[in-house]
Amino acid sequence: MEIRIGIQNVSREISFETDMSKDDVVEKVRAAVNDNANLELTDNKGGTVLVPAGVLGYVEIGDASARRVGFVAG
């Protein structure tokens, strides 16, 4: 699943893939915002992304489906 995080006053977003479920991501974002704590997510390579909740602009949770690769005959 692709996650994109926008940071206030920063033009680039943080984008990464994770094996976490959508519900887990939503729960972690809500908890971080409610507690004014760090949002801590794990990417699919075992890395950790930490973002202070106070600077979050948005968190976009992508589709859980696999990406398609191929060509269309036309």
UniProtKB/TrEMBL annotation:
Q: Which domain of life is it from?
A: Bacteria
The cross-references to Pfam families, in alphabetical order and at most eight, read: DUF3107 (PF11305)
Task: Please give the organism.
Answer: Yaniella flava
Q: Write the protein's name.
A: DUF3107 domain-containing protein
InterPro entries for this protein: DUF3107 (IPR021456)
